Amino acid sequence: MNARHYLPLILMLSTSVISDDRISIDLRGGGRVTGSLLTEKPDALFVDLGHDVVRLPKDQILNRQKFTGSEVASSTTTPATVSEDDMDGFYKTGGMDGKSVRQLVDQFGEGVISIDTPSSNGSGFLLNGDGYAITNQHVIAGETRISATLYKKNPSGALQRVRVEEVEIVAMNPLMDLALIRLPKREDLTYKPCSLSVDELAAGDGVFAIGNPLGLERSVSQGIVSTRNRNFDGLVYLQTDAAINPGNSGGPLFNLKGEVVGVTNMKATSGDNLGFAIPIRYVKDFLRNRDAFGYDKTNPNAGYRYMDAPRRGKPAVASSKSVEGRPGL
Question: Which among 108, 273, 284, 314 could disulfide-bond with 318, CB atoms 3.0 to 4.6 Å apart, if both were Cys?
Answer without folding.
Answer: 314
